[in-house]
Amino acid sequence: MKVLPFTIPVPHGQSIIVQEEVLPHFYPHLHRHAEIQVTWIQQGEGTLLAGNSMHVFGSGDVYVLGANQPHLFKSSPEYFAEDSDKQVRAVSVFFNPNGQLSALFGLPEMVLVKSFFTKQQSGFKVPAEAAVAFWAMIQKIQYANGAAQLALLIDMLNAMSMLEGIEPLSSGNFPYSMTDPEGARIATVYNYIMHNYSSALTLDEVARLAHLTPNAFCRYFKKHTRTTFIAFVNKVRVNEACKLLVNGSLNNIADVAYSCGFSSITNFNYVFKAITGKSPRDYINEYSGAVKATR
């Protein structure tokens, strides 16, 4: 099996990198890079894994990912179907305040902006009500160059520094200082879980994947993710269940539970409420009420 790099190098020779993606699905492997990343999801849906937390993403969302923050935009399962004609579209802006832009971020006029991004190392999602404004800013940066592009980046970062009510994507103080071999091992485990959550995953099989004994793996996983293996698997499964519950693609709650890897409806109800704070039925009703209120 090919070992994929955990740290992805971004091309040198540019202080601002803009990347447009039009693909069958997003890059499906956990990775990191030294640059802060601002991504506008133009088309597509799935699960964002950022640090040790998961978030449902969809078209129109704008995310900011911190420097060296492990992350993965995992497209929904239907994007990987053999007969799928679906596509994802996204535009990302990369910049490194400690690289070629360090002199800019060292200016007195940039103190507040630098302080803001220093505090937001766990990344954040731009609030929905502000997202449209940032679509336009990202698009202007995409088609500009030279000094004009740099000026537009400063405008966008300044606007972000004034956002209110944002919450970190990753809970706790996630250890982003792990080495590449450590990160590659965690990435292998994450990727395996994200692609096999619907199966009956066992501690023994995942420990073997990481070339560790079960006890050693539990200690290793907890050290590098600040959560237990079982808790992480449950988060992945509940996250997928949330999407299935609201899109109505399955007949009933029991079907959702079993398709997401839960062995019983009782266990599903218990875990779902422990993670979301509400029962599956209440979750559906709350979502339905919110949709009606926006119409």
From TrEMBL:
Annotated keywords: DNA-binding, Transcription, Transcription regulation
InterPro entries: AraC-bd, Homeodomain-like_sf, HTH_AraC, HTH_AraC-typ_CS, RmlC-like_jellyroll, RmlC_Cupin_sf
Pfam families per record: AraC_binding (PF02311), HTH_18 (PF12833)
Annotated SUPFAM superfamilies: Homeodomain-like, RmlC-like cupins
Entry keyword DNA-binding: yes
Single Gene Ontology MF annotation: sequence-specific DNA binding
Name of protein: AraC family transcriptional regulator
Lineage: Bacteria, Pseudomonadati, Bacteroidota, Sphingobacteriia, Sphingobacteriales
